[in-house]
Structure formats: C-alpha cells, structure tokens
UniProtKB/TrEMBL annotation:
<dbReference type="InterPro" id="IPR032675">
    <property type="entry name" value="LRR_dom_sf"/>
</dbReference>
<dbReference type="InterPro" id="IPR047948">
    <property type="entry name" value="FBXL18_F-box"/>
</dbReference>
<dbReference type="GO" id="GO:0019005">
    <property type="term" value="C:SCF ubiquitin ligase complex"/>
</dbReference>
<dbReference type="Pfam" id="PF12937">
    <property type="entry name" value="F-box-like"/>
</dbReference>
<dbReference type="GO" id="GO:0031146">
    <property type="term" value="P:SCF-dependent proteasomal ubiquitin-dependent protein catabolic process"/>
</dbReference>
<dbReference type="InterPro" id="IPR001810">
    <property type="entry name" value="F-box_dom"/>
</dbReference>
<dbReference type="InterPro" id="IPR036047">
    <property type="entry name" value="F-box-like_dom_sf"/>
</dbReference>
<dbReference type="Pfam" id="PF19729">
    <property type="entry name" value="LRR_FBXL18"/>
</dbReference>
<dbReference type="InterPro" id="IPR045627">
    <property type="entry name" value="FBXL18_LRR"/>
</dbReference>
<feature type="domain" description="F-box">
    <location>
        <begin position="15"/>
        <end position="62"/>
    </location>
</feature>
<protein>
    <submittedName>
        <fullName>FXL18 protein</fullName>
    </submittedName>
</protein>
Amino acid sequence: LQEIVSVESEEENNGINLMEFSDEILLHILSYVPCTDLVLNVRRTCRKLATLCLDKSLTHTVLLQKDYKVNKDKVKQLMRDIGKEIYQLNMAGCYWLPSSTIDHVTRCKNLVKLNLSGCHVTSLRLSKMLSTLQHLRSLAIDVNPGFDASQLSSECKATLSRVLELKQTLYTPSYGVVPCCTSLEKLLLYFEILDRSREGFMLSGQLMVGESNVPHYQNLRIFYARLAPGYVNQEVVRLYLAVLSDRTPENLHAFLISAPGSFAETGATKNLLDSMARNVRLDALQLPKAWINGSGLLQHLKFNNPFYFSFSRCTLSGGHLIQRVINGGKDLKSLTSLNLSGCVHCLAPDSLFRKAEDDIDSSILESLVVSCCNLRHLNLSAAHHHSSESIGNHLCQLLSRLKHLLSLALPVCSITDVAANVEKPPTASNLVPQTFGRKVRIGIQTYPRNLVEQANQKIESSVFWALMGSLRFLETLEIIGSSFSSAMPRNEPAIRNSLPPCVRAQSVGDSEVAAISQLTYLQSLTLAQLPNILTGSGLVNIGLQCQHLRTLSLANLGMMAKMVYMSALMDMLKHCKCLRDLRLEQPYFCAGTQFFQALSHCSSLQRLCIVSRSGTLQSDAVMSFMANCLEVIMCHMFMGESLTVCKNLQQSIVRSFQAERPALNVVIFPLLHEDLTEVIRDVPMRHLDEITLFKSRVAEEPPNLWW
C-alpha cells in the first residue's frame, strides 16, 4: 500500500507532459483554439507545436466571425503566414474591422468559401479582391448604399460567374452581384432596407435602369429570402421573384420566403407557385401567410424528402396539416425541422368555428409525432395550445416521444398540468392584477437552495417535469407566453403596454422552471411571461445543473411591477461560468451594484442587453462591471434614465475600453425616447438579430442553411 501511495504521489508531483500526447490528440485539442492564437502565439512556443499549428486540418478553415479580439494587424499577419493554406474563410459580423482589412484576403489564392457578411466592403475593394480568387465557389457579402455594379472588373465578374452559392444582405434597393452569378445553385437574400433615409426621405423599391430581368436562376436549387418589416423590402423581393415566375428552375428543391406582417400575393407570384406545383418536387418550404391562407396551394405542391417546413403565422388548421402536408403519416421521416409558430389552429381539426383558446385535438398532435418521429427542431410558440383533461393525451406527454429533439419552443399555457390547474386554488400572485404599478422595495427573497428539497416540493407526476426528463439531449428551449410582445420592436416606437398572460398560464412558475434543470446539455434558454414566478428558485437549479448554458433570455417573469426573482437570479449567475449572452427584459429593473457584482462571476460573458421600462441603472456599477469582465464586447441598455445620463455613461464606457476591445459596441438609451429607432439602425446586424431584438429562434431557418 505504501508503495502504491508513493508511486501515486510521485506521479502527482511530476504531472503530465502535454507534449507526450500523440499528434492526433494534440490536433484535436488545438482545434478548439482560435486560429489567430494558434498561428500568432501557440506555434511560437516550441518546435512540435510550430509544426502542428500549421497542420492542414487547422488551417483549411479559418473562423474569425466571433473572434472579438482580432484586429486589422492580426488579420494581416494571419494572411501573410497561412493565406495560401486557407480554403474557407469566415469573417461574418467583423463590423469593427476597417474596410482596408479586406485587401489582405487577396493572399488567400485558394479560397473556395468566403463569408464577409457584416463587413465593410466597397464595390472597388470587392472587385479587386474577387479578381484574384479564381477558385471561389461560395460568397456572402453586404450590399450597402453606394454600391455600384458597374465598378466590378471583368476578372471579378469572371470569378462571380463561377460562384455556386451566394448570400447577399441588402441595405439598399439593388440586385447586387446576383446578375453576375450565372451559375447559382443556392441564393440567400436578406432584405434590411429601411423605408426612410436618415434624412427622412421615403425610399423607393424600384431598381436602377438596366438592372432588371438579369438574374440567372436556371441552375437554382435553393431560394431563400428573409424580409425585415417595411414595404420597400417587399417591392424589391418581388423584382427578384419576377424572373422566377417566368421560368421555374427544374432543379429547385427548397423555396423559402420569410416575411413579417402582410405580404400580399400578386399575379406574378401566383404564376410562380402554379409553376412550382406543376414542375418541381420540394424538400423545404416556407411562404408568407397570405400566400397559404385560404388557398389550395398545399394540396397541389409535391414533396420529395422534406427536411424543413415553416407555416409560421398561417391559419392552417390541423386537418389541412395532416391531409395536405403530412399526407396521412407517409414519407415524413425525413422531416427534421418544423416551424408552426403563431399557427393558432394547427392542432385543431378546423378553424371555422374554433376559438384560439379552445382545447387542442390530441389525435392531430399524435399523428404529427408519429409521422415526424425524427424531428430535431420544433416550434409551437405564439399560440394557445391547451390540452384537455384526457389521461395520456397532454401535449407534453405526446412530445416526450420525440427523442431526437435538439431545440423546442412552446407557449407557457401548453405546459401547465390540466388537473393541477383545475384543482389548485389561485395563489396570492394570481389575485394581483398583472399590470404596471408604482415601484415597490423588495427585500431579499427566501427560497429553497437545496436541490433535493426543491425536487421534493415538486409533484413529480407533472407532465412538464416528465417531458424535461425525457428530452435529456435538448440544447435549446424557449417557453414564451402566447400573448407576450417585447417592449423593443423593430421599426416602431417602444411598446408601452403589454397584454395579460393566458389564464391557463397563471399557474406556471418556479416549479416548472426548476424542471428545466434536468436538461444537462442545455445551451440556450428563453423564458418569457411566466406569471407565477414567486422567488425564482428554479433559476438557481438551472445555474447549478446546466453547466453548458451559453445564452439566457428572461422577460416579464412574475409580477410586472416587482422584480421578485432578483435574489435568485443573482445566485444563479454565480454558477454560469459558460454564459456568453444575457438578455433581460423586465419593467422597473434596477441595474445596481449587487446585480453587476453577481454578473461579474460570468467570466465568459460577451454580450449583455437589458430592456426595462422605468428601469434604473448605477453608472459606477456598470463601469466596474465592464472593468472586471474583460470579455464583454456588447453592452446594450434601454432603460428609464434620462438621455443625459445614458449618453454620459455610453461615452465613458467607449472612452475607457474601446482601445483594448476593438469590437466593443455600446448603446445606452432611454427606452421610450422618440429617436430610439434611429439608434437601433446603427446597431451591427449580428447583435441586433441575435440578442437585442426578442424573437423565437427555434426552426427560424432550415438547419445548416449557411456554413
């Protein structure tokens, strides 16, 4: 025994030499290190690492899209050292890099894939760069005001003619480089054109003379268009679709248009859909709700091996869903992603005489679950999906059969236990109106901190508790109130009032949140409009158990006029070592010293967004937090403070930390100020789309739409 102890202690003293591992193991470890660190730092430590860091498996694909510490000089040195070895380069969202940085990409002569979405690229720089990239087959760029296709050289156009995949984000009415891409097989279009210029002039959706009728779609396999709110975006996308309506590509297998609000069908679009029904078999489909509602389109479209469907905000009934889409349970094993967000009648046999709050037909959901047994992403949010009292037919019980689910979005009222909801008398919080009130000083809350104690308090027969237990590999979960709307809309003034939660949702609170802690591999969590949060004790469980959590979004929990879960939230944050993105939306939120001290425990935090009507902040606490959390590069706070207070704090943060954090983006502004929309338009699209604006993101797009 003494010999064994002595040997063990000797091994502990000597430790393990990392360089003794095999090359395969070391390469796997190094694959988790940002490429800039590998090439510029790690390879200079010893000869062995100098060789391994330049291995083709590590230099073939370079990802800079969330390397917030990279700057122009690092990119220049990186391209100089390994430019010829790079075949795929992703610089998406590198908004902080000057446009001259793009000049160094010309060293990557062998590039096949290039993503410059969110980067500052002029027409002339784009022309110069693409002229040297003869092997390029995949390209992603932004088209900003001032873009001029006539400045593209013949060599640039020759490169574009060989491009097979194009992702183009439009901030101005234009075809961009689409007319030059004569071999396109995949076209992704993001329309972010505002209806008014900064000077207040109304914009037109008409394209410049000579740009019409020139896209080449004959080889197109995938067409995707996502529109931001606004009539100009609708006008421009119709011009892109006009060519498609003349001749539908024979190989088209994915046709997707995501449009908010009303996007009316025209004669041209009707001809396009009729042509698609006759000539193509689709694998992915998403259409504006006006194109589907009341039409027999789905009855005529043909599908091959569909992997993605989105009927978001459509009035599609469950009967039509089963008959026309699921086809009686046939050929849907291939479906991996389904978006039924806002589809209020999708789990009912018909929509003619049904109220949105009526119980669902469990047989429709059961048919869906059986037919689409391989679903990985399912969105049922923004609707009232109320289960009946029938034993074994609760929505949560049926969804528990989907063992492959990786992401799930549900309305709050769908997870309540029907029997418990009926028998349980209203709690004190239920009796208090869910409205805004005067500020109330809240003391330190008490709640069970022991996991066993919390579990004992929860009835383990709860259908939601059982659902969470059966979906152990779930990575993304959204539980959103069916009537919830964020106070931070896209292109309108902030919303001042909110609708009350669904009656069925009144009992959903701390115990349901605690059930989520069973999801060991959870990476992203959204909770919005859970009215019965009393202490927030379930949040602590999540912080302790869900150690992989990277994104957390909480909105309007508990009573609207009282931040009753602050103490529990602060306890939770102390355990979230992997948390990178935090979004909080709560009226009367006090962003003070205690909150920021707790948040400072989140050592990996990169982005913070707080939205609070009548909320307050302490400038000194914010500055101290920014000094302690060195990884934070985004701080967005929309509160109830005065414009002067907000501007002074924003300037102080930028002045103190911008030099050390090149990607730093700070927006601190009064939530109800009339100029809020003007401020929002300057936020980098990456932050705006991923965290600042609230939305359901489950099955928002087909999986792996872009690399």
